[in-house]
Design a protein that fits this description.
globular; alpha+beta; 25% helix; 81 residues; 5 strands; 5-stranded antiparallel sheet
Length: 81
């Protein structure tokens, strides 16, 4: 998993069709599209307050939600062990 840490980000409501943003898990996971890309990106809020950003490599929102959720759970598991 290629992960990038970003220092801050604002959360948005779910879903927001105007800017293609969907919030999951009480704001802990945010899916969004950048520019003209058809693929969904995800960012996760860590316990430290930092945000981790990944590409879901998925065009379908439902598939992106499933993938992002799985990656979030895996990342949280790694942080606790």
């Amino acid at each position: 998993m290629n992960v990038g840490i970003i220092s801050s980000a604002s959360t948005t409501s779910s879903p927001n069709s105007q800017n293609n943003t969907v919030t999951l898990r009480d704001g802990e996971v945010i899916l969004y599209k950048r520019g003209k890309s058809g693929r969904w990106q995800a960012r996760y809020k860590l316990p430290s307050g930092e945000w981790v950003r990944i590409s879901t490599k998925r065009n379908n929102l439902r598939d992106a939600q499933d993938y992002a959720g799985e990656q979030y759970v895996e990342l949280r598991r790694k942080l606790t062990h």
